[in-house]
Amino acid sequence: MESYLSMKNISKTFGVTGLKANDNVTLDVRRGEIHALVGENGAGKTTLMNILYGIMQPDSGTISLNGKELKILNPIAANKAGIGMVHQHSRLVNEFTVAQNVVLGAEPKKAAIFFDNRKAEAEVAAVIEKNRFHISPEMKISEISVGQMQQVEIIKMLYRKAELLILDEPTSILTEQEIQRLFDTLRELIKRGKTVILITHKLSEVKDISDRITVMRKGRIVSVKDTADVDEREISKMMVGKSVIFDFAKGEEGCRETVLSLEKVSIRKKRQGHPILDNISFNASSCEIVGITGVAGNGLTELEDVIAGLQKISSGSIYHNDEDITNISPKALRERGLAYVPTDRLKRGSSLDTSVKENLILTSHHDFMKRCGVFDDNKISEHSRRLISEYKIDGHSDVPIGTLSGGNIQKVILARELDNVKDFVLFSEPTWGLDVASSEFIYEKMLEMRARGVAVVLISSNIDEILTLADTIFVMYRGRLVAGRASGPDLTREVIGEYMLGLKDDFRGEE
């Protein structure tokens, strides 16, 4: 079948390092298909799509659409050619309405000068109705859900008459129900003659929604397959050179002694209608992974900060091994043995301008000082060599950690934290933005902690991650726990999604 989009012999080299992000890449996409572009972080997917959308220019190669060769110098040129891109992170203005966000940069004018808000709402309403979206153009972005924001991003591209849509990790923070609604939208767009390129790490989604798959590895295309002809295991093997499918056994009952306990923990702030955290109670025991999930904005971040000692609570109590540790300092928590892998690995988890070996001792630097008060360089170097080897960190100990990939930065944080763990560890969004190979490594380390008798608290908006790893699962909605159940076959992605959206609440009415 003839190609609709053809990117031929695309190459892109970055900087003085000579890193070839794209190495003679040829991508063919057919009209009216959903084409999945998959590969590990650093495989070259985003670079290739940034070139297609005009954010970057290739060193060599050509782009043709509908048989016509194009020079795409910027995103405006891409839009004019009928190419739209929905980025991983929302670029919407919270205080603007849906309509105002959609027309931003292409606003209808009144008397050729003034913004015509009424016309904008009418034009956006027409796009919404034609494509069967369920959202009002008058609503403010601050009033809508994350799933609806994703809709707005797509409407924004359709308003600009995009025929080819690029979606970069569009489901990373959506519930199961929102994912299915998004997929229904994509299928409807395909019926209307649109074409979609989907970048995703989630292999189950690749199988669910795509027609064909292009696999990239180390800047090159290694395989192109009809989705129906391959399973998830084969896709993962093509991506990383080996099969990476997460199928881990749950923890055994037995060494379950309560290590960390939260009792009716609340955070209240003035002039807010309801508590940020509202009577949160749960236990984390040795040899157990406690998974806590929810949609962003429902209290996961605040719960992370509370457990890490970075946020004081308004009421309630927190216990560690039956000792009250309510509102103690992060330093005191560290001394008690807390290991902490934060959501923000770049700002909170590491110091980007300092070396790998310095980052490996950030929380234990006093252990590497001589009696005279200076650092023992030999001891630090030996410590770094051991952890770099044990955690398979791809990077020299003397280079700034900021020069490493996201997966390797996360490995440095893991090495530092887990090397000092005593009996409890907090992971928050540990695989956010990481590829399947890096995720597998992190999961294995998490399971090692559980096997050692450590109490593991895993905060994650990734339902698959929670279902794969957690022995006990809690769901948060509007600052409350609305579900707390042992993991099992009856606790599916769909059921968890209902709790995440507030459609179900096991604890409603309880004090």
Any key phrases for this structure?
6-stranded mixed sheet, 31% helix, 22 strands, 16 helices, Rossmann fold, alpha/beta, 511 residues
Description:
31% of the residues lie in helices and 25% in strands. The chain is α/β, with parallel strands linked by helices and 511 residues long. The protein has 2 domains: 5-240, Rossmann fold (3-Layer(aba) Sandwich); 258-337 and 421-500, Rossmann fold. The protein is globular, with a radius of gyration of 25 Å. The mean pLDDT is 89.
* Amino-to-carboxy terminus distance: 63 Å
Main sheet record: 6 strands, mixed
CATH homologous superfamily title of the largest domain: P-loop containing nucleotide triphosphate hydrolases
The total tally of domains equals: 2
Into which percent range does the helicity of residues fall?
A: 25-40%
Number of strands: 22
On the 0 to 100 scale, the average pLDDT is: 89
CATH architecture of the largest domain, by name, is: 3-Layer(aba) Sandwich
Q: What is the CATH topology of the largest domain?
A: Rossmann fold
Strand content: 15-25%
Strand order of the largest sheet: 6-9-10-3-11-12
Number of helices: 16
Q: Quick one: overall form?
A: globular
Quick one: CATH class of the largest domain?
Alpha Beta
Question: Unreliable segments (pLDDT under 50, ≥5 consecutive)?
Answer: none
Classification by helices and strands: alpha/beta
Radius of gyration: 25 Å
